[in-house]
Amino acid sequence: GTPEIPKPLLDELADGGRLVAPVGDRAIQDLVRVKREGETNHTQRYGAVRFVPLIGTYGWKNEEKW
Question: Strands (DSSP E) along 1-66, which ranges?
């Protein structure tokens, strides 16, 4: 899971490309799909999920032990 989709991943999407990721807070996230159409990213949410947190530069800061 990640608090927001990292910009470098969005930058890599080609026209027609799709990215699916769990986005939200540490307790619960929404499953999000981003589809690139030209220069525009269209986002659709698919409901609540819970994933292992993304840590590091583009994820959660000050990682706590689970």
Answer: 18-24, 29-37, 40-49
Let me know: does 3 contact 25? Beta carbons within 8 Å. Answer: yes
Band of the pLDDT at 43, cuts 50, 70, 90?
very high
CA distance 41 to 48: 21
How confident is the model over 41-66, as a mean pLDDT? 81
In the block, residue with structure tokens 């490309």: 17
What is the per-residue burial (b if ≥16 Cβ within 10 Å, else e) of 21-37? bbbbeeeebbbbebbbe
Give the Cα separation of 52 and 26 in Å (integer): 9
Average pLDDT of the residues in 27-47: 95
Q: What are phi and psi of 11, to 5 degrees?
A: -65, -25
